[in-house]
Design goal:
The complex is a heterodimer of chains A (85) and B (980). Chain A contains one helix and five strands; from the N terminus they run βββαββ. Chain A is mostly beta strands and 85 residues long. The relative contact order of chain A is 0.26. By secondary structure, chain B is α+β, with helices and mostly antiparallel strands. Chain B has 25 helices and 49 strands. In chain B, the strands form 13 sheets. Chain B has a six-stranded mixed beta sheet. Chain B has a six-stranded antiparallel beta barrel with strand order 44-47-46-45-48-49. Chain B has a five-stranded mixed beta sheet with strand order 2-1-7-5-6. Classes of the chains: A mainly beta (85), B alpha+beta (980). The interface between A and B is medium-sized, with 26 and 21 residues. The complex binds zinc ion (ZN).
């Protein structure tokens, strides 16, 4: 298992240089969240078969965190359609 | 050593450089350029090993490391491929899987009982009653082993290498070299991997010219020269690719040879386009006793003679199914080897030029004929040739070598792991790879291409296609090559598949696992009728040669036996690595890299004994003092410790305080200039992950410290939370830019006062205050009055370049006060006496602030943004089942349980000791333990089980100690000393 990831600073780099930071989620309000919802937020991932948005950290590189879309089926860069903007 | 053949330009041995080596303890001579196997062969060794199950004698079969016949133990390393390992001076070579010698193997009798040993015999015969199995297993392991590991084996040096390039070409034969040259024209970086120690593939040892061209070996040399002359082509020899992964990621292993200090190198090549030109391998011909020593692949016989100058034998029979065999037979006759007969399983599709060559030399050529039976006991004595189809005339020929093959099979394993699908091509008579993933191309014999010109054009085309992947392709060039390919005459290959003769015995489909065609028939009868099923039932293709030798024959045999068309049964799935890789090579070199503090040299001058903690080398203790002296001096006088390893950060920007509030449990709005605030960091589970002090340096400008081992993680953690909210907060890692020393003890104020001209009194510079000061009138320092070891203490931060000078100044100023350095060991004791928690030692992945008595560090009412650990801290606050951190003193003052000892109550484990030390200050052992809540009662007794001395069996005796839970801190509970 090995693929390339494009760092916004450094361009396409070997995946070994990065650390996975989990799926991009919305942090619940700390004052109103229930224990169950908090546990879901902390522990559960969608883990879709397809394109998902994730956090990655260029640990052995420039030290940048970035959110990026990845296709979990082939790990190839997600090509956006022109009209999506 | 028997004399070699006369010199020829294809040879790769150096006759001047004799190498001495040992085989079975006796000295032998080989030549530089030999492999272990060829050196043994030239010394008359014909039996190399015994087979795994029946202990049948096995000789040289293949020269590329694809067969298990020549596995030997070299200098203690088992399973070395003798045929692919260069001979070195002084090698100590021993045969494997043998009791006695390979020639007189005492287990050789096994083969006469083979009728009683069907597939799974060992498992079926010995599994009942169950008590038999452990004994049987020990004997079987001996009988069916694959070498032994020598624990005394010297450790080799291995490494990992990572390459990047645009085009990676696998295989340095004709197609690969043409592809490399074509791709190099595009000016891109090309890497060429070749498994042999030279370029050229089969061209390198062939001399027979086709169509008035130049001899193949000359062509190979010229191409190799052209490739080497390309500055943008990197050639890696002795390198076998092991897999192609996603995004054209090629992995390979490189065997070390002369001039390479590494025994093996694991390498990864990241390419944008890959050309696979791995060629083909001869697949074994199926006939009775097809494993006798003396039976080898045609290319093996050819290379023995042409590359190593060794006569394969005196009388040779050839039974082949492809043109290479015809060429080899004529060429070997040229070298003076008597070719008794040449059989070819095909009835058509030959290269007529090669046949007339044979005729000219008077060699009988028998089309539509093949080897059906071999005889001999330990060596081949004769071969029976008979028509491929039908019951024609059978003829016996006496010989000592038989070159036998059922045709070529593509070395498509890499393409298969890359995702290509295999399908049977009846024209080629082979399973061929197709449907390549993007960016992967194939050229040469791996696509069943035949003829030099076709292969060369295919290679060129693949190189151009690779350039096209990069957007550099020139369609006109591609069209030109395609036209050339179209013009080349395509000869039919002739009918290839040849099933084993009816009634054949001891006809081996898989040499490694001693699987015969009879056993495959039995497997089919028992319902195992697909390749994958037969593989799992009979273990065919699971040995050292994997599917290289049996991979094509298995599905063809299955189809034949089931009365289906060839290709109706597909080969087994290939999985990486397709070439064996040693774990040591994957592990690579063992680097111990560590960081040293700016005070390192100075500390060493004081006798520091360093040890590695995290990334840092830190002084554990100082040679001239005992641990208690170091501790007592801090409590009585003054000591100093190098704390440059602390994480030190500046955080500034509009949203700096928001970020601090997000990651720290406390309220960071209350941090003011000139004051320090203790701050604890939690993760989403409310578990403490770091702590340190924070101070404000100016408007939206903060300085904070982290524990020594957390600096890297903290950087990542803060950067994430800042990015997630898109805050404007800039983090500067000052860890390596600043040196820091903690000056601690009742006399520390006096020492500091001698270095600065500022007022250090308790009124002006109280506990938890921070001041900018000038040291010795010139060095800018940040001085923090912190608790640390529970005494009056000052943490002095200076630019790293002043670290060494700081120590000198402290030693000088502290001389009248008996200053001495202390190390980590003393620090642990001092901090434990104060009940300070070491995160990660006294806490684990479950310890929340509440569990370790730090609830006060959480401000539940702070307004504004969200705190990472807050919800979990709220939820865990009232949970009753949580383990608590408690302090204890030992009931027997001088007993100390080792860290990690379990706490036992009512026969169950109820917790563990996290730290325990003898306290010189208190005169007894103290410690911290994480225990179940029902035990966490003040005054309660804890029972520790700890490892004692080793008993006669070499097992530690369990000792039981007792301690009593007491309030923490153990020392100066009111904190008068650190505030004084
Ligand atoms: Zn980067």
């Amino acid at each position: 298992m090995s693929f390339l990831l494009t760092c916004p600073n450094c361009g396409p780099r070997n995946i070994y240089e990065f650390r996975f930071g989990g799926e991009v989620k919305t942090r619940p309000d700390e004052n109103t969240v229930s224990a169950e919802d908090w546990a879901d937020y902390v522990y559960l991932s969608k883990n879709v078969c397809g394109v998902q948005k994730e956090w990655w950290y260029h640990a052995k590189g420039c030290g940048t965190w970035f959110a990026v879309e990845r296709d979990t089926r082939d790990n190839l860069p997600v090509v956006k359609e022109e009209n999506e903007g | 050593m028997t004399p070699r053949l006369p010199e020829s330009p294809t040879q790769r041995i150096s006759r001047e450089n004799e190498l001495l080596f040992f085989y079975r303890g006796k000295p032998f001579k080989g030549l530089e350029g030999d492999t272990i196997a060829t050196a043994l062969y030239s010394n008359g060794v014909r039996i190399f090993s015994r087979s795994m199950k029946y202990h049948r004698p096995r000789g040289l079969y293949n020269l590329d490391g694809y067969s298990s016949h020549c596995l030997v133990t070299v200098d203690g390393e088992p399973n070395v491929r003798g045929c692919a390992t260069p001979l070195r001076q002084g090698m100590w070579v021993t045969p494997q899987n043998v009791l006695g010698s390979p020639r007189w193997d005492l287990m050789g009798l096994m083969q006469f009982f083979s009728f009683a040993m069907p597939v799974g015999f060992y498992y079926k015969a010995f599994h009942k009653p169950s008590w038999v199995w452990p004994f049987a297993q020990a004997v079987i392991r001996r009988a069916a082993g694959l070498g032994r590991i020598d624990p005394e084996m010297p450790e080799g040096v291995y490494q990992n290498r990572y390459y990047n390039c645009e085009v990676c070409i696998i295989g340095g034969g004709l197609a690969g070299m043409e592809a490399a040259l074509a791709a190099a024209e595009g000016g891109v970086r090309v890497i060429l991997l070749e498994r042999r120690d030279h370029l050229g593939g089969d061209l390198a040892y062939r001399v027979t010219r086709s169509n008035e061209g130049i001899p193949p070996y000359r062509r190979a040399a010229m191409l190799a020269e052209a490739v080497s002359a390309c500055e943008n082509v990197t050639v890696l020899l002795c390198t076998s690719a092991t897999a192609i992964y996603q995004s054209n990621h090629v992995t390979a292993v490189k065997r070390g040879g002369a001039g390479d200090p590494y025994r093996e190198t694991y390498l990864e090549v990241r390419a944008r386009s890959v050309v696979v030109a791995t060629g083909a391998i001869e697949r074994p011909l199926l006939f009775s006793n097809n494993d006798l020593p003396g039976i080898m692949q045609g290319s093996c016989a050819h290379r023995l003679a042409r590359v190593y100058g060794i006569k394969p034998g005196n009388r040779m029979v050839v039974s082949g199914c492809h043109d290479g065999m015809l060429e080899m037979a004529a060429d070997l006759a040229e070298l003076g080897i008597e070719i008794v007969a040449v059989a070819d399983g095909r009835s058509s599709g030959f290269d007529t030029e090669l046949i007339s060559n044979l005729h000219r030399k008077g060699i009988p050529f028998l089309p539509g004929t093949m080897a059906r039976k071999a005889i001999g006991f330990k060596r081949l004595k004769g071969v029976q040739l008979a028509p491929t189809f039908g019951n024609g005339r059978k003829r016996w020929y006496s010989c000592d070598v038989l070159a036998a093959s059922a045709g070529e099979a593509p070395l498509s394993q890499l393409l298969q792991v890359a995702g290509a699908k295999m399908a049977y091509d009846s024209a080629a008579g082979q399973f061929l790879p197709g449907e390549f993933p993007p960016g992967i191309h194939a050229a040469g014999k791996v696509t069943a291409a035949r003829g030099e010109e076709t292969i060369a054009a295919q290679g060129k085309l693949a190189g151009l296609m690779a350039l096209q992947d990069l957007g550099l392709g020139r369609t006109s060039h591609i069209r030109q090559v395609r036209e050339i390919l179209d013009v080349i005459e395509k000869r039919p290959a002739g009918r290839h598949w040849t099933a084993p003769p009816v009634g054949s015995r001891k006809c081996f489909l898989c040499f490694d696992e001693d699987v015969t065609t009879d056993q495959v028939r039995d497997a089919i009868d028992q319902g195992f009728d697909q390749s994958e099923l037969v593989k799992r039932y009979t273990a065919v293709g699971t040995g050292p040669s994997q599917s290289y030798l049996s991979g094509t024959n298995l599905p063809l045999l299955l189809a034949d036996q089931r009365g289906l068309e060839p290709g109706a049964v597909l080969p087994t799935t290939v999985r990486p690595p397709v070439f064996p890789t040693s774990l040591a090579a994957l592990g690579g070199r063992r680097y111990t890299s560590s960081k040293r503090t700016p005070l390192h040299e100075k500390q060493a001058q004081l006798g520091a004994c360093f040890r590695l903690t995290g990334v840092w080398e830190r002084a554990g203790s100082f040679a001239d003092a005992g641990l208690s002296q170091e501790v007592e001096n801090v409590r009585k006088n003054v000591g100093f410790i190098d704390v440059s390893t602390l994480g030190k950060f500046r955080l500034f920007g509009r949203d700096a305080v928001k970020l601090l509030n997000r990651v720290y449990a406390g309220n960071m709005e209350t941090v003011t200039e000139g004051r320090l605030k203790y701050a604890a960091m939690c993760n989403e589970q409310g578990v403490i992950i770091d702590d340190g002090v924070v101070t404000r340096m100016g408007e939206s400008d903060y300085f904070f410290t982290t524990s020594s081992l957390r600096a890297g993680n903290t950087l990542e953690w803060l950067a994430f939370h800042s990015k997630e909210e898109d805050w404007e907060a800039h983090l500067v890692n000052l860890t390596d830019a600043m040196a820091a020393v903690n000056l601690a003890g009742p006399r520390s104020r006096e020492v500091l006062a001698r270095l600065v001209d500022a007022d250090c009194s308790n009124e002006v510079f109280p506990y938890m205050a921070v001041r900018r000061m000038k040291l010795c009138g010139e060095v800018d320092a940040l001085v923090m009055r912190v608790g640390f070891v529970g005494e009056l203490s000052f943490e002095i931060h200076v630019p790293a370049s002043y670290g060494a000078a700081l120590q000198d100044a402290l030693l000088d100023a502290g001389k009248p006060y008996c200053i001495r350095p202390f190390g980590l060991d003393a620090q642990s004791v001092l901090r434990l006496e104060k009940g300070h928690v070491i995160i990660g030692t006294d806490t684990d992945n479950h310890s929340t602030l509440h569990d370790i008595g730090l609830s006060w560090a959480w401000d539940r009412k702070k307004a504004g943004n969200q705190t990472v650990g807050a919800p979990a801290l709220r939820f865990t606050e009232t949970q009753k089942h949580r383990q608590k951190l408690v302090g204890f003193t030992m009931n027997e003052a001088f007993r100390t349980p080792s860290d990690g000892s379990i706490v036992v109550a009512d026969g169950t484990v109820k917790g563990r000791v996290t730290s325990s030390r003898f306290s010189p200050t208190l005169g007894r052992s103290i410690g911290l333990a994480l225990v179940d809540p029902d035990l966490a009662v003040m005054g309660g007794t804890l029972e520790f089980y700890t490892d004692g001395r080793l008993n006669r069996k070499g097992l530690p005796e369990i000792k039981t100690f007792r301690g009593t839970i007491v309030p923490v801190p153990f020392y100066d509970p009111e904190g008068k000393r650190l505030r004084g």
